[in-house]
Design brief:
Number of strands: 18
Distance between the termini: 125 Å
Shape: globular
Helix content: 10-25%
Number of helices: 4
Radius of gyration: 34 Å
Structural class: alpha+beta
Strand order of the largest sheet: 1-12-11-15-13-14-3-2
Strand content: 25-35%
Order of helices and strands: HHEEEEEEEEEHEEEEEHEEEE
Largest sheet: 8 strands, antiparallel
Length: 308
């Protein structure tokens, strides 16, 4: 008696098991259950929702920042700045001479030429840097140097960029990345999107303003305005703070390159062209520059060096 299920001929092969095991997935136990598919779908949905939320948050944040800053088109210099160009820094001897700390404050003025650009260098001695908003009193005997600092907006005449006056914030904004901070008498000139020195100036009764960056860590910083004009800068030349201007119309690039070649490490722009100001020399001589206009916008700001 033969049994079909057990009798196998020499030329036959029998597959043992249920018919649905014939597929490779079933043979190796790889067929996913409905529960597994449910978990996969849930994970995919969660990842998609997270990516969508991240994209929307970034977009909202960008819109909020743009709305907060507004279009800060300058009244004196209308365009924004660019990037840095690598240069070689070299050690330099101080430009200013040694002065007795008990001597009366004054501005030492030196004239030089760099890259065929005539430069006037104003070095304060026994003086402290402050900021001022509004007309400066020319009769104030304590003022040794005054020059316009931050720009004002063309549309509403408000100060462009973050600005702190004796601990009081008067403006916010990051359209110009160069900054000068005076906190506890210490002057810092630099370039940054955000600086903790803004908060420190607010907390400690200091000063802070923003302008075009010209030199950052010894490197020239390119700026978009391509016109030529009388340029002026507030500079840190390896720890020596000074103001430098050119007596001939120059581009931002050429002026900044002259500062780099002068040995300046960090520098920001001061309103130049025909803006009005003055300095007082060692003998009490007073030298004015620019054109005095009246009236001036009420938010016009100045750096002011005063006798200690």
């Amino acid at each position: 008696m033969t049994h079909p299920e057990t009798d196998i001929q020499d030329d036959e092969i029998r597959v043992i098991g249920h018919e649905d095991r014939a597929t490779p997935e079933a043979a190796f136990g790889l067929r996913p259950s409905r529960r597994v598919w449910g978990w996969v779908a849930a994970i995919v949905a969660a990842v998609a929702a997270a990516l969508l939320g991240w994209a929307m948050w970034g977009g909202v944040r960008a819109v909020d920042e743009a709305a907060h800053e507004g279009e800060e088109i300058g009244y004196f210099e209308p365009e924004a700045g660019g990037g840095a160009v690598d240069t070689v820094r070299r050690a330099c001897e101080p430009l200013g001479r040694e002065v007795d700390s008990l001597a009366a404050g004054f501005i030492e003025v030196r004239d030089t030429t760099v890259n065929d650009i005539p430069l006037r260098i104003c070095i304060p001695h026994n003086a402290e840097l402050t900021l001022h908003v509004g007309p400066v009193d020319r009769r104030d005997p304590g003022i040794l140097y005054a020059a316009q600092a931050a720009d004002i907006r063309r549309d509403n005449r408000k100060i462009v960029g973050a600005f702190v006056l004796r601990g009081e914030p008067l403006a916010w904004g990051l359209s110009k990345k160069g900054y000068c901070a005076v906190v506890d008498g210490r002057i810092t000139i630099g370039v940054a999107d955000n600086s903790p020195l803004f908060e420190q100036a607010t907390e400690r009764g200091g000063y802070f303003f923003r302008q075009y960056p010209l030199v950052s860590d010894g490197r020239l910083v390119e700026n978009e305005p391509k016109n030529k004009s009388i340029r002026r800068a507030l500079c840190d030349r390896q720890g020596e703070i000074m103001m430098v201007d050119c007596s001939t119309p120059e581009s931002f690039h050429d002026f900044a390159q002259a500062l780099v070649d002068l040995g300046v490490v960090n520098a920001i722009y001061l309103v130049g062209s025909t803006s009005y100001g003055w300095w007082v020399g060692e003998e009490g001589e007073r030298q004015e520059f620019g054109v005095e206009r009246s009236p001036i916008p009420k938010n016009t700001s100045y750096i002011v060096w005063r006798r200690r």
